[in-house]
């Protein structure tokens, strides 16, 4: 164990790597030294050691799962160790802090003391650490790849991290980076095979992601991102799974401020949300229909109105009993079979509408997504 506190970076690197291999083979060692590995990432400044240590952390979480490091047994063991003499982890971390350079040392110490005072669950603490790693230029690529592996294997379920990685993928500062290829592969496969946990993560990340882009300050590189393209991508990743409550929420978000960039973006992609006529209730479909009607009246561009009109026509065909069916039962039908305000009759006057026929991400849910073309 003396190697992990060596002042020689090469020796320290090999020793940490050897300790990591040992931990992968033993759950007991993994539970004992995970905190130590996190401390190494916070206080060391040798790039290769940082990357190797972070990979070890992700490998341990991937092999054993986050629940292994947050169970009652581990909490009890750590409490007993604190009451006894100084543990091996504390001794190694203390020695490591005194033998390494000053890369983020003060910040790391502040974070350690802050976490010691807070009683957050382990999952919440590790997610916060992952967010910090994504913001670190040195650790960003390794962190994104590790998080993608954890989420793909359902070891980690967190919408905020998914949103962070999506914004990182679209961020112009990552152009030409190998990170984009890794994330592109992850996004194209995440949520496949009707993985409901993954689809729920994408759905929960939808609104915060779009709002973050629309509210980006003028000095932020996120300002260069087209929020509509991001929204279209996220809807395509849902592969036709659009919860009616999500659509209702989208309508309400639009009606709060339809003139804002956020509201305009949601209005332009609303018609891409598919409604399952068999699964959705008539009440939900009628509510969506009435909300979309209100949004259409406030839409500014004729192309948007046409798209919403087509969407309304689809909704009308799904309603088994329209809101006006009771009145229709007591009234004879018009001779020409038409009614004022009927969306289907309005659509006939706009035969040029071809919304839904575009070459886009929505051709077929089972078709592979050409994600790299979506960020150019």
How would you describe the overall organization of this protein?
The protein is mostly helical and 376 residues long. It has 18 helices and no strands. It has helices at residues 9-25, 27-43, 47-64, 72-83, 88-99, 105-117, 122-135, 140-152, 159-170, 178-189, 196-214, 227-237, 244-256, 261-269, 282-298, 302-318, 325-329, 343-348. Helix 2 runs antiparallel to helix 3, helix 2 (27-43) runs parallel beside helix 5 (88-99) and helix 12 (227-237) packs across helix 14 (261-269). It is elongated, with a radius of gyration of 27 Å. The two termini are 49 Å apart. 30% of the residues are buried. Residues 75-89, 93-106 and 321-369 have low confidence and may be disordered.
Largest sheet: none
Distance between the termini: 49 Å
Task: Give the percentage of residues in beta strands.
Answer: under 5%
Low-confidence stretches at least 5 residues in length (pLDDT < 50)?
75-89, 93-106, 321-369
Mean pLDDT, as a whole number?
78
Total number of strands: 0
Based on secondary structure, the structural category is mainly alpha
- CA radius of gyration is 27 Å
